Amino acid sequence: MVRQVTSTPALTLHVLPPSHPCMTAEAALRHKRLEYDKVSLTPGPHVEEMTRVYGEGNTTVPGLLVGDEPVHGSRAILERLEQMEPDPPLYPEPIADAVREAERWGDEELQDLGRRLPWGALHFRPEAMGTFGGGGPLDPAGTDFAINYVRGTWKYHGITAERLAADLAGLPEQIDHVDTLIADGAMGGGDPTAADLQIGATLRVLLTVADLQPLIEGRPVEEVARRWFPDYPGEIPRGAFPAGWVPARA
Ligand SMILES: N[C@@H](CCC(=O)N[C@@H](CS)C(=O)NCC(=O)O)C(=O)O
């Protein structure tokens, strides 16, 4: 990659590899053709390192160091990149306000589903956790590890069967909303906006859950997710969620 503006400070992106907001930040860096270093952290120890670099309470990824300046969180990172390198724009006029609102919705409303639904499904198919590392399904010993690990994620993300069923029941409406954002032009154009990168990353993760594919496939939302995020490992086989939990497509 070639840094276009010679005065751009050194950029260091801190990530956890499977994280979708990290995919958002990295896609923005690439789209703006900025040179950057990527530091892939280890889940667990990442808390201490993120706190050291980004300050107390800023334990989540992504974070971006712009020279010595810490910028924490996917939305703050995209805003900072736009300021640093306005072209190509992620918040193009005259739709900048609509893009910001769609991006906010994608972060505050949709993004958590990219955690709760895959971790939720993995409870029922723990051997599939191996596919997220690029391998095949786990062997029995690996599956024992995955069962424990997934239990921890349910606790951490506040997942319960009741919440999962409610998330699934509300999903068609969320996906319809994304199609509306595309139809209204806040995303889905030839160049990605911040909304494409924020929302597309979550949808790409949801496509790893085969039970959810019928809700997404063949729609403009699928095209956006796969266009900006063509490669993302992971496949949780169909039939993971209990019968009747996944609603029919509206
Ligand atoms: N809304 C924030 C959320 C970031 C977030 O929760 N990232 C997750 C990974 S997807 C994380 O850091 N998880 C580890 C943790 O919570 O310590 C953003 O977009 O930056």
Would you give an account of this structure?
The chain is an alpha+beta fold and 250 residues long. The protein has 2 domains: 74 residues, Glutaredoxin (3-Layer(aba) Sandwich), CATH 3.40.30.10; 133 residues, Glutathione S-transferase Yfyf (Class Pi), Chain A, domain 2, CATH 1.20.1050. Helix content is 51%, strand content 7%. It has a 4-stranded mixed beta sheet, sandwiched between helices. Strand 3 and strand 4 form a beta hairpin. Helix 1 packs parallel to helix 3 and helix 5 crosses helix 7. The longest helix is centred in the C-terminal third of the chain and has 24 residues. The structure holds glutathione (GSH). The site of glutathione has 13 residues, from helix 1.
Rg, Å, rounded: 18 Å
Give me the secondary-structure category: alpha+beta
What bound compounds does this protein have? glutathione
Give the CATH class of the largest domain: Mainly Alpha
Summed up, the domain count is 2
Give a short account of the largest sheet.
4 strands, mixed
Number of helical runs? 10
Tally of extended strands? Answer: 4
Measured between the Cα atoms of the first and last residue, the distance is: 43 Å
Percent of residues in beta strands: 5-15%
What is the 3D form? Answer: globular
CATH architecture descriptor text of the largest domain: Up-down Bundle
Order of helices and strands: EHEHEEHHHHHHHH
Which blocks of ≥5 consecutive residues have pLDDT under 50?
none
**Mean pLDDT level:** 96
**What topology, given as strand order, has the largest sheet?**
2-1-3-4
**Helix content estimate:** 40-55%
CATH topology of the largest domain: Glutathione S-transferase Yfyf (Class Pi), Chain A, domain 2
